[in-house]
Amino acid sequence: MSEITVFPATKEQFDPVPATEPTLYFIGVTTGHSSIMKVFPEWSKAMGLGAVIKGIDIGIHEDPEVYRKVVSFIKNDKLSMGALVTTHKLDLYNACSDLFEYLDPYALLFNELSSISKKDGKLCGHAKDPISSGLALSDFVPEGWWKEHGGDFYVIGAGGSAISMGSYLMRDEFKGNYPGRIIVSNRSMPRLEEIKKIFTTKLDPGGIEFQFKLCPEFVQNDEVLSNIKPYSVIVNATGLGKDRPGSPLTDAASFPENSLVWEINYRGDLTFMHQAEKQEKEKNLHIEDGWRYFIYGWTQVISEVFHLPIEGELLDRLDLLAKQFKQ
To answer: Which residues share a beta bridge with 55?
Structure first.
């Protein structure tokens, strides 16, 4: 078993060791606890990459200087091939976008970065979540779901994942099959205002009602949930239940009948998912965890960093390999 290496990054200290072999970094909050630290070495062998993975832990909403130190190190270190970014997608973009020679259209549209890679001597930034979240949604949301049932899409949390999901649902190819309402709740106003601007001015295809709810207390999310229609999709995109314990709902929350409930985390206490499971039979809920989102998220970035397409049989093989490490 490969040794897990994690570098803490703070304003006072960031002391990474220059890479001596091709290295992929995982930039997050508690990276050492993620299954990917055990999974990637097996994937690297299976794909013949000859690469290792190391974590970089950064506190939530850190000082911009910290993000710049991390990105500058990856940019200038020859065998540091790139990174997957989680939790810090928006903050890292805001602090470091000028350090990149190339930013993909999604990164520029949403002001976020989930993938750092290098190509032809250029540091490249991509926002892969609109692709990976779309692939994950298509795995469990039946084709024609919104057209047939007219339900809502309610996402709790207004960060990069919520923005990506909305962008997927509002694609032109889904015209006639949009959610009747897209509803976003968040505990603070700045992120809510940002997602409102993106959804209503950059993405709005027409025909969707948007609601943006400021919910600093969990019980307020309960109240929003109580007004969600049956046959809806409800998503926990807050990070609660993974990096931090708990759920954005209280135990008194009531899910709408015949709905699809998505906990986008796959590790942690997963309180939100367990709350839904208690109502699964009574409300006829379909409950999905974040495992496939995890698989799609990582394989999309690895594909970019190592310039290798990952789909079909290879994707299924990597999923099977990873399952033996699922926590």
So the answer is: 6, 26
Collapsed DSSP state (helix, strand, coil) of residue 263: strand
User: For residues 195 and 2, what is the distance between their CA atoms, to the nearest angstrom?
Assistant: 40
Decide: 92 and 41 in contact? Cβ < 8 Å.
no
Q: Residue 260 pairs with which residues in a beta bridge? A: 233, 286
Whether 199 and 222 map to the same domain: the answer is: yes
Question: What SS3 state is found at 24?
Answer: strand
- 72 contacts: CB under 8 Å, gap ≥ 6: 99
Q: Give the Cα separation of 125 and 92 in Å (integer).
A: 11
**pLDDT-based confidence at 255, cuts 50/70/90?**
very high
The amino acid present at 170, given as its one-letter code, is M
List of residues 6+ apart from 121 with CB closer than 8 A? none
What is the DSSP code string of 291-318?
HHHHHHHHHHHHHHHHT----HHHHHHH
Whole domain around residue 177: which residue ranges? Answer: 131-289
* Under 8 Å between Cβ of 104 and 75: no
How many residues make up the chain in this entry?
327
Using alpha carbons only, how large is the chain's radius of gyration in Å?
A: 19
Q: What is the DSSP string of 93-108?
A: HHHHGGG-SEE-HHHH
pLDDT band at 20 (very low <50, low <70, confident <90, very high): very high
Q: Are residues 213 and 301 in the same domain?
A: no
pTM of the model: 0.88
Q: What is the 3-state secondary structure (H, E, C) of 25-90?
A: EEEECCHHHCCHHHHHHHHHHHHCCCCEEEEEEECCCCCHHHHHHHHHHHHHCCCEEEEEECCCHH
Q: Are residues 158 and 281 in the same domain?
A: yes
Strand partners, 236: 156, 263
Q: Report if residue 1 sits inside a domain.
A: no
Looking at residue 2, its pLDDT comes to 64
Q: List, in sequence order, every residue forming a beta bridge with 117; answer none if it has no partner.
A: 124
Residue 102's pLDDT band (cuts 50, 70, 90) = very high
Secondary structure of residue 15 in the 3-state scheme: coil
